[in-house]
Amino acid sequence: MLESLVTGIRAAVCEAATLEETAQSVAAWLKANRPGPELLTAEQRRGNPEHYEQHVLHVEPDGSFSVVALVWLPGQETPVHDHLAWCVVGVLEGTEHETVYRLDDHAELVRDLESQNPVGSVSCCIPPGDIHKVTNIGAETAISLHVYGADIGHCGSSIKRTYALDHV
């Protein structure tokens, strides 16, 4: 199952030219070929009580993309952050709450919009301006599949930088 997922993502990555086109192509492929939580082993579905858990599933040999599963126990969240590269997220289980921010004219964070991303939803983050925070506000575990336009095996994370929430 992972092999067919990677093959489909690889084709979507190869057919696009710009970062935005690549992210949109991968998102369209994920929407049309929606993987389920059965894609993951029992170990890859297990959360960590200390923080959300990242499981690297695949890194393309040329570093052009990585596929990662994130497991969120109730109440777990990311810091406010942006990314090194484009990112496509598909929710496999549970619901993720996303808060999107923007920088105002004084380089201050401003809350821009919030969304609930249930099972089956697919979204894109394309730098620059992809500042957000993701939280599992539900009572159940949430699991999402992330496709990053970067070699996560080498980088360790897709996060470029984090932002302090002083007064947002």
Structure overview:
The chain is 18% helix and 37% strand. Helix 1 runs antiparallel to helix 2. The chain starts with a helix and ends in a 5-residue tail after the last strand. The mean pLDDT is 92.
Can you give me a brief rundown of this structure?
With 168 residues, the chain is α+β, with helices and mostly antiparallel strands. The chain is 18% helix and 37% strand. The chain has helices at 2-14, 19-32, 152-155, and strands at residues 53-59, 66-72, 80-83, 87-93, 96-103, 109-117, 122-125, 132-135, 142-148, 159-163.
Category from helices, strands and their pairing: alpha+beta
* Strand element count: 10
Q: What is the helix content?
A: 10-25%
Which percent range describes the beta-strand content?
Answer: 35-45%
Q: Number of helix segments? A: 3
The description of the largest β-sheet is:
5 strands, antiparallel
Low-confidence stretches: none
Radius of gyration: 15 Å
SSE topology string: HHEEEEEEEEEHE
Shape: globular
Mean pLDDT: 92
**Cross-sheet strand order for the largest sheet:** 1-2-9-4-7
Distance from N terminus to C terminus (CA atoms, Å) equals: 42 Å
